[in-house]
Write a structure and sequence with these properties.
The complex is a heterodimer.
Chain A (H helix, E strand, L loop, with lengths): L2 E3 L4 E5 L4 E3 L2 E3 L6 E6 L5 E7 L5 E3 L5 E5 L4 E6 L8 E9 L6 E4 L3 E6 L1
Parallel strand pairs in A: 2-12
Antiparallel strand pairs in A: 1-4, 3-9, 5-6, 5-10, 7-8, 8-9, 10-11, 10-12
Chain B lengths: L3 E4 L2 E4 L5 E7 L5 E8 L3 E8 L6 E2 L6 E5 L5 E5 L8 E8 L8 E3 L3 E5 L1
Parallel strand pairs in B: 2-11
Antiparallel strand pairs in B: 1-3, 3-8, 4-5, 4-9, 5-6, 7-8, 9-10, 9-11
Classes of the chains: A mainly beta, B mainly beta.
C-alpha cells in the first residue's frame, strides 16, 4: 500500500532562514507526490507536485521540493522563510491501488516561522 | 468561479441527531471526495465519487452515507451522530487530466457532536 511519513510534528525556523519540511514515501511503482498547505481555518491548498522528470520541483509562494528516489524522500524547501509561511503542511502520494483516484496524506507538519 | 463550496461552516449536534453536509463545485470535475481531519491523524478519506452516479468507500466510511446528486454536488450524511464524529470535514474535487490532476479543497465544516 502507498504511504507517506512526515517525521516531524513541528518545525521551527527564524524568518529569513532556509526551511525544510521532511517527507518520505513508500510506493510500488512510480511515485506521484504532492505537497499541500493549510492556513488556519482554511481548506488545503495545492503547492506543488512531482510526476516525472526534474528532481527539483518548483511550486507556489517560492516553495520547492526535492525528489530523491534512492532515499525515497520528497522534502519541501524554501531558501528564505517568511512569517506568513507559518501553516500546516501535508505531504501526499497518489494511491495506485485504486486506479490513481485517491490521495494518501501524511499526518502533517506544523511550520512556525518566528520574526 | 467559486471553486469548492461547503455548507454549513459550523455545526453542533447532539448524539443521535442526523445532518447532511453539502458540497458543490463549479469546475466541471468528475471526481469528488469527503475527508475528515483530526489532530495528529492528517486527512482520512471517508467516501469518494469518481463520476456522477458512482460512490466508493474510503478509509473511514462507517457511520456515514453519501449521495452524488449530480456532477456538481456531493453530500455527506450522518444518520446518527456520535461524539467520535467530532471533526473538521473537507470536500474536494479533482481535475481529470491524469497524471497532472490536482485536488481542490473546500473551506471545511467544523462539526461538534455532544
Amino acid at each position: 500500500a502507498q504511504s507517506v511519513a512526515q517525521p516531524e510534528d513541528q518545525v521551527n525556523v527564524a524568518e529569513g532562514n532556509p526551511l525544510t519540511v521532511k517527507c518520505t514515501y513508500s510506493v510500488s511503482g512510480n511515485p506521484y507526490l504532492f505537497w499541500y498547505v493549510q492556513y488556519p481555518n482554511r481548506g488545503l491548498q495545492f503547492l506543488l507536485k512531482y510526476i516525472t522528470g526534474d528532481n527539483l520541483v518548483k511550486g507556489s509562494y517560492g516553495f520547492e521540493a526535492e525528489f530523491n528516489k534512492s532515499q525515497t524522500s520528497f522534502h519541501l524547501k524554501k531558501p528564505s522563510a517568511l512569517v506568513s509561511d507559518s501553516a500546516l503542511y501535508f505531504c501526499a502520494v497518489r494511491d495506485q491501488s485504486t486506479g490513481f483516484q485517491k490521495l494518501v496524506f501524511g499526518t502533517g507538519t506544523r511550520l512556525l516561522v518566528s520574526p | 468561479n467559486a471553486g469548492v463550496t461547503q455548507t454549513p461552516k459550523f455545526q453542533v449536534l447532539k448524539t443521535g441527531q442526523s445532518m447532511t453536509l453539502q458540497c458543490a463545485q463549479d469546475m466541471n470535475h468528475n471526481s469528488m471526495y469527503w475527508y475528515r481531519q483530526d489532530p495528529g491523524m492528517g486527512l482520512r478519506l471517508i467516501y469518494y465519487s469518481a463520476s456522477e452516479g458512482t460512490t466508493d468507500k474510503g478509509e473511514v466510511p462507517n457511520g456515514y452515507n453519501v449521495s452524488r446528486l449530480n456532477k456538481r454536488e456531493f453530500s455527506l450524511r450522518l444518520e446518527s451522530a456520535a461524539p467520535s464524529q467530532t471533526s473538521v470535514y473537507f470536500c474536494a474535487s479533482r481535475t481529470d487530466s491524469f497524471p497532472s490532476d490536482t485536488q481542490y479543497f473546500g473551506p471545511g465544516t467544523r462539526l461538534t457532536v455532544l
